[in-house]
Amino acid sequence: MVRVRFAPSPTGSLHLGNALTAVANRRFADSAGGVLVLRIDDTDPSRAVDGGEAEILGDLAWLGVRCDEGPVRQSERGPLYAEAVERALASRSAERDAEGAVRLLRGGTTLLRADGTATYQLASVADDLDLNITHVIRGNDHRPNLEIQQRIARALGGELPDVIHHGLVLGQDGKKLSKRHGHSSIAELRDEGFPPEAVRAYLDELDLPEHDVHLDLARLRRLAIDTIAAMSDDDLAAAVGAPVEVVPVLRGARSLLEAKDYASLALEPAPTNLTPEARPTLDRFVELREQAPERLSPAEARAILRELKAVGGDLRALRLALTGAETGPELAAVVAAVSREDALARAARAGGA
Ligand code: GLU
Fold it and tell me: How far is the centre of ligand 1, averaged over its atoms, from the C-alpha of 6 (Å)?
């Protein structure tokens, strides 16, 4: 039975590269009918942040990465590590120094600090063995740990699982992803309005990169557009928190954030006062809108706009009257989404009537 683990440190929202590791582990488990264990690597209290674990759980849920077991917290497994160290001491693979720290004889890697706490190296290997992990899939920044960890595994009387190192996701400038880049963590991507399905699709596309890859923001944006276009009306309305009637307005949005902006332009536009030149357009619009049904199909809305244009109407002024903004969603979609009553009221207000 394949058993893999995703082992983040609880330092807050996952970086895109860590998210890649999580997604890759899930895929690997799924392809083999195996199990994914979530392990929280919190042996270093100075790196842990408050709420860091909760944030990671939220990120995984958002990405649709299900974990079958865990979270297993290293901070709660001190006795397991102490017992592992005893084994290494008993087999004479490690020795305790005068201060009480325990080190491997070969290579001198510290297993246990003088205060009795386990190092990352020891905890990671002891857990991989104890949790019966069969494959480790992680970023290639851990490649230097491989040999050390194989040695520790043998000192503990076991063998390290097979390890696959994948390339990291770097910023577009080729540097390690950081806040400075933007779009670097799952929290940032969520706040920027990327739909989770788009981020997941992007990470699935990257698969298991052999070498480091540069974040392809254009591709991520393309996937966001495609995802929004493919969402059902109900799903899109729910993702934006808007009534389903305004969905036509949201369709052209490039992110869920932009879709939210579009929804508020349609639902609660800022008031505008237009100059008298806009008057004939608004008057004609009011006439056409009064004769039309309470709710319009997009085709009916487009017909009204065509008629307005045919008489030289100023569609920019109509957009301002209906949405309070110069730019935004497709105008016909707005005309279709806004009820007759609201459309007439907005036209009247903008025209100073
Ligand atoms: N806690 C390590 C990290 O977040 C994981 C190490 C490993 O997968 O072995 O990078």
Answer: 8
